[in-house]
């Protein structure tokens, strides 16, 4: 009798645990996403250092090196970290959550000193917001405009030597290295090459929106 009682208690405890895991790792509904995003931002406030503003010079120094990088796998995947320059200045912090589903369901939140980037992916389709404004949909490696559906930016999937060219509109604005980096990269591998001197703010935002997603994707894949 006592054995049956113990088994019953263990079974109930296991069911409760599995239910909590399923609830925690289920894709939030549209009504819940504002709350979830707010929690992610507040949590980042507790661990992210003040970020250095990104300008043309800082982009040139942007590296693959990360500080405070944590990757956890289980029922769902979570990751966070801060990309730095080759001089270890923090420039982009991010937080990532992958939810349950047959197709990709995930949230990526990235922050610079001046801008917030939010990527909600549901059933494999990614919507991008910058500073709370809808920008468009990322299909494969291409960002399509929210209103027009036309191509805004693209990161090539076929390397050119050791780089993936990134274009905004019809102009190539950078090339992202295909090398991998991490917290143990003492040389601070530069992330970008071939950045034009006259890169404007819009081009910088769209470049970072695709590049950060690509770099975080390499961490969590």
What's the structural blueprint in terms of helices and strands?
Layout: H1 2-24, H2 33-47, H3 56-61, E1 62-72, E2 77-85, E3 90-99, E4 105-111, E5 116-122, E6 125-130, E7 133-139, E8 142-145, E9 151-155, E10 163-168, E11 171-177, E12 192-193, H4 201-220
Antiparallel strand pairs: 1-2, 2-3, 3-4, 4-5, 5-6, 6-7, 7-8, 8-9, 9-10, 10-11, 11-12
What features would you describe in this structure?
It is a single chain. The protein has 221 residues and is α+β, with helices and mostly antiparallel strands. The chain has one domain (30-220). The protein has helices at residues 2-24, 33-47, 56-61, 201-220; strands at 62-72, 77-85, 90-99, 105-111, 116-122, 125-130, 133-139, 142-145, 151-155, 163-168, 171-177, 192-193. The protein has a 12-stranded antiparallel beta sheet with strand order 1-2-3-4-5-6-7-8-9-10-11-12, sandwiched between helices. A hairpin with a 4-residue loop joins strand 4 (105-111) and strand 5. Residues 9-23 have low confidence and may be disordered.
């Amino acid at each position: 009798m006592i054995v049956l009682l113990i088994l019953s208690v263990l079974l109930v405890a296991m069911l409760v645990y599995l239910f909590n895991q399923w609830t925690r790792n289920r894709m939030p509904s549209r009504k819940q996403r504002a709350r979830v995003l707010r929690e992610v931002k507040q949590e980042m406030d507790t661990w992210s250092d003040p970020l250095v503003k990104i300008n043309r010079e800082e982009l040139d120094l942007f590296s693959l090196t990360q500080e405070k990088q944590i990757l956890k796998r289980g029922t769902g995947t979570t990751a966070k970290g801060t990309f730095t320059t080759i001089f270890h200045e923090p420039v982009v912090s991010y937080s990532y959550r992958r939810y349950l589903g047959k197709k990709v369901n995930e949230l990526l939140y990235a922050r610079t000193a001046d801008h917030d980037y939010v990527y909600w992916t549901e059933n494999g389709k990614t919507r991008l917001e910058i500073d709370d404004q809808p920008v468009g949909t990322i299909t494969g490696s291409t960002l399509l405009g929210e209103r027009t559906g036309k191509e805004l930016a693209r990161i090539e999937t076929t390397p050119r030597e050791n780089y993936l060219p990134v274009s905004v509109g019809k102009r190539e604005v950078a090339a992202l290295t295909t090398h991998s980096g991490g917290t143990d990269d003492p040389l601070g591998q530069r992330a970008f090459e071939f950045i034009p001197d006259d890169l404007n703010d819009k081009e910088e935002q769209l470049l970072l929106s695709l590049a950060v997603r690509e770099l975080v994707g390499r961490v969590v894949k």
